Amino acid sequence: MAIVTSQDDTSAKKIKYSERRKRSAAAMRMKSGGAGGWKSMSKEDRAFIAHVFKEFDVEGTGLLDAATLLPLLARLNGGEAVTEEETMEVLVKADNDKSGTISIDELKDVIRIWYVMCQEKSKLQNKGKGIMGMGRGCCVM
């Protein structure tokens, strides 16, 4: 959702995204009992996701951008560096509301998408070797 703020006629109209509305929408999705919703997760999983999110949301905005997502993915990657391209791929795939940021309810998708990417990369690297490994320390927290 966007809030349009009016300005004088000489300047272009500016669209300002309401962070409050994004957080409210994220909270509603988290509270839903639907498949993939916050309530469908165990208490331990919800506590884990909340802890990880709070750790990487150092500014307390309730949102993670590409810069704050990079170290999170590095942690999932066993401490090994992650490329900006990999970070952007995860961000685009996990950003369900297309806000350009990750909210707490999208963090579980970040973890799932990263895990799948690691599996696919591992399969490509091990193709023809008869080995099915997890690759670069994937999904270690």
Major β-sheet profile: 2 strands, antiparallel
What topology, given as strand order, has the largest sheet? 1-2
How would you name the oligomeric state of the polypeptide chains in this document?
A: single chain
> What is the radius of gyration computed over CA atoms, rounded to a whole number of angstroms?
18 Å
Return the average pLDDT rounded to an integer.
75
Which structural class fits the helix and strand makeup?
mainly alpha
Explain the layout of strands and helices.
Layout: E1 2-5, E2 14-17, H1 19-31, H2 43-56, H3 66-76, H4 84-94, H5 104-126
In short:
This protein has 141 residues and is mostly helical. Helix content is 51%, strand content 6%.
Q: What are the defining features of this structure?
A:
single chain, 141 residues, mainly alpha, two-stranded antiparallel sheet, 5 helices, globular, disordered N terminus
